[in-house]
Amino acid sequence: MIIARVVGSVVSTSKAEKLQGKKLLVIQPLDMNTIENDGKPLVSIDTVGSGVGEVVMVVSGSSARQTLSTEGTPVDSAIVGIIDHIEIEGKLTFENKGG
């Protein structure tokens, strides 16, 4: 599981049948300690209603196909949570101040 920031979206009118109606977002992986970019952006299927600017939890590989909305769907990355805050060794490294 990684954390990432949602930085954009992907629109695809022609796609696999099981992807119809699914929201595809561009995510930028983040370092949990610094909340700085850590790697290249990738496309992830949204399962929780997240949006641009939010910090999210992302699973990949076979785990991405374990949610109710992705079971049997050809995906390799799924957003499974919107992060409220991250605390590591007693230090708050991220806090969602949006509400």
Quick recap:
The chain is mainly beta.
Structure, described:
The chain is an all-beta fold and about 100 residues long. It has one domain (about 1-95): EutN/Ccml (OB fold (Dihydrolipoamide Acetyltransferase, E2P)), CATH 2.40.50. The chain contains no helices and seven strands. It has strands spanning about 1-10, 25-30, 40-45, 55-60, 75-80, 85-90, 90-95. Strands 1-2-3-5-4 form a five-stranded mixed beta barrel. The protein has a two-stranded antiparallel ribbon with strand order 6-7. The protein starts with a strand and ends with a strand. This is Ethanolamine utilization protein EutN. InterPro entries: EutN_CcmL, EutN_CcmL_sf.
Give descriptors for this structure.
five-stranded mixed β-barrel, 99 residues, mainly beta, OB fold (Dihydrolipoamide Acetyltransferase, E2P), 41% strand, 7 strands, 0% helix
Mean pLDDT: 91
Shape: elongated
Distance between the termini: 24 Å
| CATH class category | Mainly Beta
Give the CATH H-level superfamily: EutN/Ccml
User: What are the segments in which pLDDT stays under 50 over at least 5 consecutive residues?
Assistant: none
Strand tally is 7
User: Which range does the strand content fall in?
Assistant: 35-45%
What is the CATH T-level topology? OB fold (Dihydrolipoamide Acetyltransferase, E2P)
Named CATH architecture: Beta Barrel
Computed structural class: mainly beta
Please give the radius of gyration in angstroms: 14 Å
The helicity comes to: under 10%
> How would you spell out the order of helices and strands?
EEEEEEE
Main sheet characteristics: 5 strands, mixed, barrel
- Total number of domains: 1
How are strands sequenced across the largest beta sheet? Answer: 1-2-3-5-4
